[in-house]
């Protein structure tokens, strides 16, 4: 991408330099036909060299324009015409002046561009820092909301066991202990998500990508998912051919696990859960889809930022940790150079989608 952008800029600079030189040459030919004086010719070529040095990148275009202009002045506009004679004083002085103009203008232009680039980078850094602080604030608000329910449940269950342990039936004890275990597992997943956000958000930590075989990645995800949700079947559809993708496999596994678990927790009325991987050019596109209730329009805006906090009860009566989970997924996918998107399906339910490049860029 960077090389393509650089090649396009070089092409634009070349075309601009040729256009300005041709226009300058044409104007001088017109002056030569209409007037007897030749004093304007060097000045017009100097102005052309100035424009080229001002609008192009680097030194080479301005210097090349100065050299070519000296040849043009000497060959077409200095007596004897259409012969090169570099011992003419006008040619020597014109060459010196044009080179000075080209180098000076290019130097000034480079400094201005460097300052502009530095200013843009500072603005981007400030924007990124602001976004980071906003995300942290959203996560803290979501944490205070989402952690209250399981902590209250654990506290209530343990208080009951301590206060009335001898009088409680064994079935009730097992039920309370099961609720404590379930809430504890949920809290562990929440902490893992938050640690992932911290890891991705730390600019000192870079994603280390290694080629991972797609089949092995999907098998690992399905195995972990089945342990947590043995009653939920996942329909998979992946390419038959051998595919390896550069990634941090642990983080991408967490993305897929979060997306699958979010469907189990939040897709009310779901009867089908699917995981699909398809190739699109050099990209591997991952999709997790369900046929549940879909995503309400009022929560879509804050869905991937961690800012979604439902003031009412969740639609399925379960904990509402979707905002934090999806903000984690978004951070991980963006660190891999992609983006996480969602859409409601026409036939019902929702699809979450992201892509990874096979070349690792």
Describe the protein.
With 361 residues, the chain is of the alpha+beta class. It folds into three domains: 2-121, no CATH class; 147-205, no CATH class; 208-361, Histidine kinase-like ATPase, C-terminal domain (Heat Shock Protein 90, 2-Layer Sandwich), CATH 3.30.565.10. It contains nine helices and seven strands, in the order H-H-H-H-H-H-E-H-E-E-H-E-E-H-E-E. The protein has helices at residues 2-34, 40-55, 60-76, 89-146, 148-163, 170-201, 214-228, 249-266, 322-335, and strands at residues 210-213, 235-237, 244-247, 273-280, 283-290, 341-344, 350-357. The strands form two sheets. The protein has a five-stranded mixed beta sheet, covered by helices on one side. Strands 1-3 form a two-stranded antiparallel ribbon. A hairpin with a 2-residue loop joins strand 4 (273-280) and strand 5 (283-290). Helix 5 runs antiparallel to helix 6 (170-201) and helix 6 packs parallel to helix 9. The N and C termini lie close together (9 Å). The model is unreliable at 307-322 (pLDDT under 50).
Into which percent range does the helicity of residues fall?
Answer: 55-70%
Overall number of structural domains: 3
Instruction: State the assembly state of the protein chains.
Output: single chain
| Mean model confidence by pLDDT | 80
Provide a count of the helices: 9
Q: Which architecture of the largest domain does the CATH hierarchy give at level 2?
A: 2-Layer Sandwich
């Amino acid at each position: 991408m960077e090389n393509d952008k650089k090649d396009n800029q070089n092409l634009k600079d070349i075309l601009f330099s040729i256009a300005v030189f041709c226009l300058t040459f044409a104007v001088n030919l017109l002056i030569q036909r209409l007037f007897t004086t030749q004093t304007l010719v060097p000045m017009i070529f100097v102005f052309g060299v100035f424009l080229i040095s001002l609008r192009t990148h680097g030194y080479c275009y301005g210097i090349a324009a100065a050299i070519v202009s000296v040849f043009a002045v000497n060959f077409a506009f200095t007596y004897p015409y259409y012969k090169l004679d570099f011992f003419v004083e006008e040619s020597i002085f014109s060459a010196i002046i044009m080179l000075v103009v080209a180098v000076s203008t290019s130097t000034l232009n480079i400094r201005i561009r460097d300052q502009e680039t530095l200013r843009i980078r500072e603005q981007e850094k400030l924007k990124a820092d602001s976004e980071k602080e906003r995300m942290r604030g959203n996560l803290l608000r979501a944490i205070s909301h989402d952690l209250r329910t399981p902590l209250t449940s654990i506290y209530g269950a343990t208080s009951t066991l301590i206060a009335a342990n001898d009088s409680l039936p064994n079935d009730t004890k097992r039920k309370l202990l099961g609720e404590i275990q379930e809430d504890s597992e949920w809290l562990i997943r929440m902490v893992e998500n938050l640690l992932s956000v911290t890891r991705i958000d730390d600019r000192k930590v870079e994603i280390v990508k290694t080629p991972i075989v797609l089949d092995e990645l999907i098998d690992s995800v399905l195995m972990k998912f089945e342990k947590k949700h043995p009653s939920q079947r996942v329909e998979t559809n992946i390419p038959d051919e051998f595919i390896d993708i550069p990634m941090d496999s642990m983080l991408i596994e967490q993305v897929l696990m979060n997306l699958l678990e979010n469907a189990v927790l939040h897709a009310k009325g779901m009867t089908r859960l699917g995981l699909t991987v398809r190739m699109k050019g050099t990209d591997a596109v991952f999709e997790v889809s369900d046929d549940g209730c879909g995503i309400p329009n009022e929560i879509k805006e804050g869905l991937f930022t961690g800012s979604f906090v439902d003031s009412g009860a969740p639609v399925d009566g379960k904990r509402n940790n979707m905002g934090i989970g999806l903000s984690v997924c978004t951070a991980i996918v963006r660190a891999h150079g992609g983006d996480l998107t969602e859409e409601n399906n026409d036939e019902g339910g929702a699809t979450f989608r992201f892509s990874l490049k096979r070349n690792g860029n």
